[in-house]
Design goal:
The protein is an all-alpha fold and 285 residues long. It has 2 domains: 11-51; 80-280, MetI-like fold. The protein has 12 helices and no strands. Helix 10 (196-235) runs antiparallel to helix 12 (251-280). The radius of gyration is 29 Å and the shape is flat. Belongs to the binding-protein-dependent transport system permease family. The chain crosses the membrane at residues 35-52, 94-119, 140-164, 226-243, 250-268. Pfam families: BPD_transp_1. InterPro entries: MetI-like, MetI-like_sf, PhnE/PtxC.
């Protein structure tokens, strides 16, 4: 039995190995490149905490605890005007539903005009897409402020804001789904002598309809939350009730309203799941 021996490696041999395999060994430049992003990120976090004066949060901890207690301790519940609260929730749901429905109908037409395999005339397609960029680039809250000024306070402004915003976003999503369809089914419909509208009806729609339904249902859920915020800027619904309760320091009622909105979102999510399953023909488990 022999024992392995380790011979000393000279500095010259190490230098030669470094020269032959430079990527194996760390160099000062590699170390700096590896750790510099982390150092910059840490410094940026500390600078942000200092810039936004995060220490004020600890200085006002008593006020924060008092506010949280006001949210969870419900008092005088017999006089909360439940009819107004649930009327506002129903108005918010109706606003979200009507805005999403109109946005979906608009996107069905505009989405096909923005699809490369439907509109082959590039200048027209680019005009449609830039128009959608404008609709999508302006936030829904800004549209709400615009329509509140245009048509006055109330849910109509919220419906129009959701409609315009959804047309811009859903049309883009729809056009991408249309561009990714299976061309064989379209060619099969064309081979029967079908016209352009028949090709769209029997070649495109069956393939993209489940995607359209799924995306629109998600937007209905999202727009229910957005309609709450739109109400705060004057577009009606439960948002106006929330801001009124906040101004009156009725934080327990605010918590009650928010809890009901969450329950509504859960219900919409459950219903959307069942509708999506029906659309794609999935078996319920």
């Amino acid at each position: 039995m022999t024992l392995a021996t380790v011979t000393a490696v000279s500095d010259a041999e190490i230098a030669a190995i470094r020269a032959q395999h430079p990527g194996v060994f760390d160099t000062p430049g590699k170390i700096v490149r590896r750790w510099a992003p982390w150092a910059v990120a840490v410094l940026y976090v500390f600078w942000s905490l200092w810039y936004f004066d995060i220490a004020r949060f600890f200085e006002t901890s008593d006020r924060v605890l008092s506010l949280l207690r006001a949210f969870v301790v419900w008092e005088d519940m017999a006089n909360w005007q439940y009819a107004n609260i649930y009327r506002g929730i129903a108005e918010t749901l109706a606003m979200a539903f009507l805005g999403t429905l109109l946005g979906t109908i608009g996107a069905l037409f505009v989405g096909f005009m923005a699809a490369r395999n439907i509109v082959t005339f590039a200048p027209l397609r680019q005009v449609v897409r830039r128009f959608l960029d404008i609709l999508r680039g302006i936030d829904q809250l800004v549209w709400g402020l615009v329509f509140v000024r245009a048509v006055g306070l109330g849910p109509l402004a919220g419906v129009l804001a959701i409609f315009v915003s959804d047309v811009g976003t859903l049309s883009k999503l729809y056009s991408e789904a249309i561009e990714n369809i299976d061309r064989k089914q379209v060619e099969g419909v064309k081979s029967t002598g079908a016209g352009p509208l028949q090709v769209i009806r029997y070649g495109y729609i069956p393939q993209v309809l489940p995607v359209f339904i799924s995306q629109s249902l998600y937007f209905l859920e999202s727009n229910t939350r957005s309609a709450t915020i739109l109400g705060i800027v004057g577009a009606g619904g439960i948002g106006m009730i929330i801001i009124e309760r906040f101004r009156a320091s009725l934080y327990d009622q605010v918590a009650f309203v928010v809890l009901n909105v969450l329950i509504l979102i859960f219900a919409i999510d459950w219903l959307s799941k069942r509708v999506r399953g029906w659309a794609i023909g999935a078996q319920e488990r």
